[in-house]
Design brief:
single chain, 262 residues, alpha+beta, 7-stranded antiparallel sheet, 7 helices, 16% strand, elongated, disordered N terminus
Length: 262
């Protein structure tokens, strides 16, 4: 999570500025008049016409405010916008702040510890819930026709059986794949990138290593990979802690060592 306490209150200041600018503009009699007025005002310093943001300075300020708001989204419930606006205005106008640097540092550190504690608590809750959901899903999925469960807990289903050789863990393979969570959300897809992935099989998660060695070249399999054979309690990027993963994989080719690129 990223947040920047010292770069925050501008969003409200910009909103106030935009409102003031809009209030100073005379209302147009019709839609065409409004369009003409906006174009004229925006052109006074060469800025591109944008409704409500007549000048380049206003547009740049609003853009900065949007960026800051995005960075603060994860902690927006902890923020009082009026106080942010007050601190920003005082600082930019050279006034005396209500906090000295020591006080600000102490508050910053305490707040950072609070957010870290909240993150850890959420991680632990998500890990527990994901593990339970995965175990329940795999238990039911194992009963479905065509689904095979290996000794490790990996589950797979043959969609298309190829006729080529099977790779070993040290081989370089070329494959198309789509990875989703149990709710169907896609987190990675070579199809979306428009080209297959080429990689050394031994460098992949255990579920992939085991699963692809079951596939003859030309095959398409569906895999359900328990978290212990994937990214475990730490997760990875969009994959949360202890999440069970679903992959559809087409094994296209087996290459030579040194060709791998992921």
């Amino acid at each position: 999570m990223k947040f920047t306490p010292r770069h925050t209150g501008l969003a409200l200041a910009v909103a106030s500025l935009a409102a003031l600018t809009a209030a100073c503009n005379k209302p147009a009699d019709n839609a065409e008049a409004k369009k003409d007025t906006a174009t004229t005002e925006a052109g006074k310093d060469g800025a591109k016409a944008i409704a409500g943001l007549a000048t380049e300075k206003e547009q740049v300020s609003y853009m900065i405010g949007m960026d800051m708001a995005r960075s603060l989204e994860p902690v927006k419930g902890e923020i009082d916008l009026d106080t942010l606006h007050k601190a920003l205005k005082t600082s930019l106008e050279g006034g005396k702040p209500l906090l000295d640097e020591k006080q600000a540092g102490e508050i910053r550190e305490a707040f950072a510890q609070k957010i870290r504690a909240q993150q850890i608590a959420k991680l632990e809750t998500d890990a527990k819930n994901n593990a339970e959901a995965g175990a329940k899903f795999l238990a039911e999925n194992a009963k479905k026709p065509g689904v095979t469960t290996t000794a490790s807990g990996l589950q797979y289903q043959v969609i298309t059986e190829g006729k080529g050789p099977k790779p070993t863990p040290t081989d370089v393979v070329s494959a198309h794949y789509k990875g989703t969570l149990l709710d169907g959300k896609t987190f990675d897809s070579s199809y979306d990138r428009g080209e297959p992935a080429t990689f050394v099989l031994s460098q992949m998660v255990p579920g992939w290593q085991e699963g692809l060695t079951l596939m003859p070249v030309g095959s398409k399999f569906r895999f359900w990979i328990p978290s212990k054979l994937a990214y475990g309690p730490q997760g990875a990027g969009p994959i949360g802690p202890n999440q069970t993963l679903v992959f559809e994989v087409e094994l296209l080719d087996i290459g030579k060592p040194g060709q791998g690129k992921q």
